[in-house]
Amino acid sequence: MPATPAHSAPPAAPGPSEQPRTDSRCGPELSAPQGLEAQTCILVSEGRTWGRSYYRNTSGHALDAVLTLMGPAGRTVQIRCAVGAEDDPGLCETPREASAGTPDSYSAVAEFAVPDDEGRLLLRSGSNAPAPADG
Fold first, then answer.
1. pTM of the predicted structure, to 2 decimals
2. Cβ-based burial of 127 (10 A; exposed 0-12, middle 13-18, buried ≥19)
3. What are phi and psi of 104, to 5 degrees?
4. Where are the domains of the chain?
């Protein structure tokens, strides 16, 4: 008696699975003469909002970063990140919180400083876009 072919599952679709869309609003890319570059953004996906700062530290010194996400009704989330002395790109990111308003009602600021008693500020990067020039 011939074997009955087994029913098999349909073949999997080729390529990676579809990822949820993430919208972002970023401020300008900034740099400090001491060898630090940064850009700070607000990100929104699947009803959650968070702040992220991309950086590159070419100063040769470890730095401290504080990233603050400010939302509607005085909601604030703050996180401290260690920025290594190596010349590799990195990021600092706040926890993802349930969104409480439109993405435009959020802003984020990252401050990069020397980790000593004085905490000398090297760069402040915000998620706000530069204001258009009059003219």
1. 0.79
2. buried
3. -70, -15
4. 23-126
